[in-house]
Amino acid sequence: MDNSMEFKLEERSQGDVVVLDVRGNLDTQSAPTLKVRLDSLVNFGHQKIVLNLSDVGFIDSTGVGSLIYAQKIINPIKGGLRIIGITPRNLNVFSVMNLTDVFSIMKTEEAAVGSFHSDDSTVH
């Protein structure tokens, strides 16, 4: 992935679930933008959020911190956070930091959206 790729967030809805497509690197420069968007979603009552990281080339510790932040602000009784599209390289970052069990990392968007209405399997 091109490290100079512009960071971009695109939001779509799947019923009562918001899918946020994240593009670019999730790092010190972009993590605050993601946190602001997540705050906005939660403040507008969205509690079921899927983060699609398939177009994220690199995640650093600040980027992971923004995901932990999201996990904390979303009410797990009303919804939750699901992560999809994580590359093997970025999954390794989660593994090294012992975070694969902290997040619901799903195989597909369909599984992630469906998991809000039933218990589907995660990647790990």
Classified by CATH, the class is Alpha Beta
Cα-atom radius of gyration: 13 Å
The CATH superfamily name is STAS domain
Beta-strand portion reads: 25-35%
Helix content: 25-40%
Mean pLDDT across all amino acids: 90
Structural class of the secondary structure composition?
alpha/beta
CATH topology-level fold name: Transcription Regulator spoIIAA
- Number of helical runs? 4
Topology readout:
Elements: E1 8-14, E2 17-26, H1 31-43, E3 48-59, H2 61-73, E4 80-84, H3 88-96, E5 104-105, H4 109-115
Parallel strand pairs: 2-3, 3-4, 4-5
Antiparallel strand pairs: 1-2
3D architecture notes:
- This protein has 124 residues and is α/β, with parallel strands linked by helices.
- It has a single domain (8-115), classed as Transcription Regulator spoIIAA (2-Layer Sandwich), CATH 3.30.750.24.
- It is 34% helix and 29% strand.
- It has four helices and five strands; from the N terminus they run E-E-H-E-H-E-H-E-H.
- The chain has helices spanning 31-43, 61-73, 88-96, 109-115; strands at residues 8-14, 17-26, 48-59, 80-84, 104-105.
- Strands 1-2-3-4-5 form a five-stranded mixed beta sheet, with helices on both faces.
- Strand 1 and strand 2 form a beta hairpin.
- It is globular and about 30 Å long.
